[in-house]
Write a structure and sequence with these properties.
Blueprint: E1 2-5, E2 8-17, E3 23-27, E4 31-37, H1 42-51, H2 53-71, E5 73-75, E6 78-84, E7 92-94, E8 97-100, H3 103-128, E9 138-141, E10 148-151, E11 156-160, H4 168-180, H5 189-198, H6 202-210
Parallel strand pairs: 2-4, 6-8, 9-11
Antiparallel strand pairs: 1-2, 3-4, 5-6, 7-8, 10-11
Helix pairs in contact: 3-4, 4-5
Length: about 210
């Protein structure tokens, strides 16, 4: 079964369970997963999709942005064309192009840049904060669902490696967010007030990171 969202065709996969409610998810490549009750008909599924078309359009647009970002190279919020030049030794940036000896060189350079920038931003923000909080070791790793983690058990703060693709203000926000958890280990009103104290534009940045 097919369904069109914003002039794009999706395959509809229906999974029937003993559910009272119907759940809809959009996944790559252009698939709508519908989990619904055993007695729900295909016509009823189409009606449910029609009733939720505005939410589906938003999910579709978000998915398109993720696909566009994955298909291009971004560094600190700017899109670059990658030019491979086997005769050079280092990664260099000129205008909207990044020149690399190889993909391995680029990946190593990116990781070095992330480690360096993240530590610099972390230290600067930590020492600017007026609250009495411990200085925790900073870790960098790829994460699928989170931009940062404050782990009180291991006493570490971890940042998502993919933050290197976004403007520095996004990295700053995530650092402030995780450091704020050392004062408020929740998402209470007081927590967000503390985040806003050091990152007044945090709402806009959160939207940017959500895509």
């Amino acid at each position: 079964m097919k369904y069109q969202i914003d002039h794009c065709d999706y395959d509809v996969v229906i999974e029937k369970k003993r559910n009272k409610n119907t759940y809809i998810r959009l996944k790559d490549p252009n698939i709508i997963y519908v989990t619904t009750g055993i007695l729900t008909t295909k016509r009823q599924v189409i009606q449910i999709l029609d009733q939720n078309i505005h939410a589906l359009v938003r999910m579709h647009q978000k998915q398109k942005k993720k696909q566009e970002r994955a298909a291009n190279f971004y560094y600190l919020g700017q899109k670059y064309d990658i030019i491979s030049v086997s005769t050079i030794n280092d990664v260099t940036i000129h205008d909207d192009k990044i020149y690399v000896p190889s993909s391995k060189h680029l990946e190593r350079w990116l990781r070095q840049q992330m480690l360096k920038l993240a530590q610099e931003r972390f230290d600067q923000i930590y020492y600017e904060m007026e609250e009495e909080i411990p200085y925790l070791p900073l870790r960098i790793r790829k994460m699928k669902t989170r931009w940062g983690v404050c782990n009180r058990r291991s006493m570490t703060i971890t940042l998502n490696y993919d933050l290197i693709q976004y403007p520095l203000e996004c990295m700053d926000y995530v650092i402030i967010h995780e450091l704020a958890h050392l004062t408020h280990f929740n998402h209470s009103k007081e927590f967000w007030q503390l985040v806003a104290k050091y990152c007044p534009q945090y709402r806009q940045i959160r939207k940017q990171l959500k895509g």
